Structure formats: structure tokens, C-alpha cells
Amino acid sequence: MRTGGALRGAAVTAPARPVIDRRRLSDSALVSIADALESGRRLTEQEALTLFATPDLPGLGHLADSANRAKHGDVVTFAANQHINPTNVCVLRTTCTFCGYARLPKEQGAYRYTLEQVLAEAAHAADGLTREFHIVGGLDMEAGLEYYTTMFRALKANFPHVHIKALTAVEIAHLARIEKMSWRDVLVALRDAGLDTMPGGGAETFSAAVRAQIARKKLAGADYIGVHRTAHGLGIRSNCTLLYGHVETLEDRVAHMAALRSLQDETHGFLAFIPLAYHPDDNALGAQLGRTGTATGGVDDLRMVAVGRLFLDNFAHVKSHWIMVTPFLSQVALHYGVNDLEGTVVREKIYHAVGAHTPQGMTLDQVLALIRGAGKVPAERDSFYNVLRTFPRERQADSGAGSGAEAPA
Ligand code: V47
Ligand code: SF4
Fold this sequence. Notes:
- By secondary structure, the protein is an alpha/beta fold.
- The chain folds into two domains: 22-69, no CATH class; 75-395, Alpha-Beta Barrel (TIM Barrel), CATH 3.20.20.70.
- It is built from 15 helices and eleven strands.
- It has helices spanning 29-39, 45-53, 57-72, 115-122, 145-158, 169-179, 183-193, 208-214, 221-233, 250-267, 284-289, 298-311, 322-325, 327-333, 364-373; strands at 75-78, 81-84, 132-135, 163-166, 197-198, 237-244, 270-277, 317-320, 340-341, 377-381, 387-390.
- It has an eight-stranded mixed β-sheet.
- Helix 5 links the parallel strand 3 (132-135) and strand 4 (163-166).
- The longest helix has 18 residues, at 250-267.
- It starts with 28 loop residues before the first helix and ends in a 19-residue tail after the last strand.
- Bound molecules: ligand V47 and iron/sulfur cluster.
- Ligand V47 binds next to strand 6 and strand 7.
């Protein structure tokens, strides 16, 4: 059993300097920020607020696009992944008011997969294309550490080539509480059973005032950071998220990103930042806010990824979750600082429980078409962001529509 660990995955690269065309900035407040970006000076929290406030959306996009191009050129990555949600039973069902996915144990629609059901769902990965399982669920008192260690061992035995990205910081803390173990011991046990990396869910917005309103019993922001710090110390890399577009202020968004940036300075363990757009349908918060049917707007979605790209200078990757913001908005976001798209997914449940009208999965050809339509170069990556194959910028005429079998470049 290993107890500590070096961080695995793509090396941390030296910061590259963006090249900015000032003629494309119509708001003079953006000029000093352009100077900072070109000189490699880190943006302050006040500057992040200036970026959120600017009326010059195309100018903001140009800054974020320049920063993204300096790191990634025209390449946009995606992973062939599959989401598995083994249980929707959750003790926080009534207090995370934004969540439409969770159920109480005896409530209609509650489910908890058996191991056989997990393996049956995972069988899709036998296609040889799927390289990552993304496994998250509710805080279920009947799904303890052994439920997950048995699941991960079985998945690794049946699909040894598939990476396991599983369990949010909130789920780790829940397992620690019900097993009366430390976060560290839970993480070590899960890692020994096959856990490779952790997803970024559960962050919501760190502000205590926001949490009191939308997730009053959820792990505090400082503890979310603490679990990720512990994971990084064990060599387990992770993603991080920010749920936006509900009751938070722009200051809350910036403070949240500042906390992520400072942990990244310390550990370099975060792989990607993923802003998640709040969906108000079929959840108590949406009804309380009178927001049913009105998710975030396209402008806010673009601002959010652009400011994230510019403020989080020590993050290599910013991912757009097309399921939340639509594939079309994600495509535009590729010109606002995003270099990575949520992958092929297969059968998404969490957002489809809260009114997402997007598809539950995309084929490889659909993901390629989306990236090419933005004038970018698609590249399939592994879970550590190593590029596995790069596809031609233009679709090859003889590749066979819908086959997913196009030859890489
Ligand atoms: O933590 C729940 C969010 C998250 C709603 O790490 C909602 O690669 C919007 O974190 N409207 C889970 N969002 C999903 C997640 C994620 C997704 C894709 C990739 C990765 C990654 C992580 O979903 C929860 C919560 O913030 N969520 N309800 C809602 N009504
Ligand atoms: Fe449970 Fe997560 Fe939903 Fe909160 S957001 S109720 S912790 S499943």
C-alpha cells in the first residue's frame, strides 16, 4: 500500500505570454489588464471584477482567447468518457436546494445500483473507445467505503484500460464521516482499490452566505479545499468547479476562484477548472427564485469561462460542460478561453434531472464536428490531459459519416 505519492500526469508548463491586439479592445479598462497579461503579471481580484463588469464582451473574449492560444494554440481536447451515477440516495436531499437529482431512501425514484448493475452500465466501455469512468452519486448511508472499493476493484478487473475519476470531495468527506476515518485514510483505501483522479463537483460557491442559502449542510468551502489538498498530497489529481448563476455575487465568484488559485499555487494538483451553469428547473431553489425555465444566459456563460481563463493563470485547462450550456454555446466558448470539452459522456443524469434539454451523450463524430466548426483542431486526450491522437482540422471525405472511425492525423 502506498501512503504518499508524486502527482501523476502532464507536467506543469511554464506560463506562456499572450499576444494581444489592442485595437480589438473598446473598453479602456481592459488595456492595463492586457499589459498585465503580456508582462506575465497575475491579475488581482479587483481586475477580475473589472473583467466581469466590462461592456466589451468581444474585447474580453480576445484577452481570454489570447491567453488560451498562448497555452494551447488551436488544439481543443476531449476525453471519451462515461458517466456512471451509482446512487441518487442522499442525506442532503432537502438542504441542497439546487439539486434535482437526489432522493431520500424511500422516496419514489430512489435507486442504488448493485455491483452487477454498475458493471452492466459500464459494459459500454467494452467498445474499446471509452477511456474514463466518471463516477459520482449521492451521500448514501448504505453506500460506504466497501461499496466503492468493491466497485472500483471490479471495474479495474473488467476494464483495466479505463481510468477511474470518481467521488467528489463531498463524497470523500461523507465516507470519512460514516466510516469514522480520516479523509486521508479514505483516499488511500480508494486509491488502492483503483481510484485514479477526482472530479470537481461539490464545490458550488464557497461563500458561507451562499452556502447557507443553497446548501446549508454541505461540506464547507474550506473543507472542499482541504480534501483536494489531501488528495493532491497523495498524488491524486483532481478537477474543480464553480456553480454560478444562482444567488451568488460576482465577488463570490472571484473569491471562489482565488481560493482555487491559491491551492493550485501550493500543490499544482488541479487538472482543470470547470464552471457549471445553474439550471433552475425541477429543483426547490429555481421555484423559490421564480426562475423556472431561465438558466444562465449566453453572455454570462462566456464571461464566466473568459474570466476563469484569465484569473486562473496557474491552471492549464478550462473545460466547458456542454451538457449545461448547450453544445452550441460550448463551441463559441472555444473562442473565449476554453480549451477542453466535456467528453462523449454516454448517459448523463444529474443535469437531466434539472431540466437540461441537451443530449445525454455525443458520438465521437459529433464532438469532432463541434470542434472543427469552431475552426479548431480536435484532439483526444487521456484523463491527465496527455494528447492521444490529433485529428485533421478538416473532416476527411472518406472517413465514413457516423462511424466514429476517422483516422487520426
Ligand atoms: O456538484 C447540481 C452541479 C455538480 C445542479 O470534474 C448542478 O470533470 C447546475 O461537478 N444546475 C456535479 N448544476 C457535476 C460536476 C462535473 C461535471 C462534469 C465534469 C466534472 C469533472 C464535474 O453538478 C454538482 C453541482 O455543482 N449541479 N445540480 C443544477 N440544478
Ligand atoms: Fe446530495 Fe450532491 Fe444533490 Fe447535494 S448536490 S443533494 S450532496 S447529490
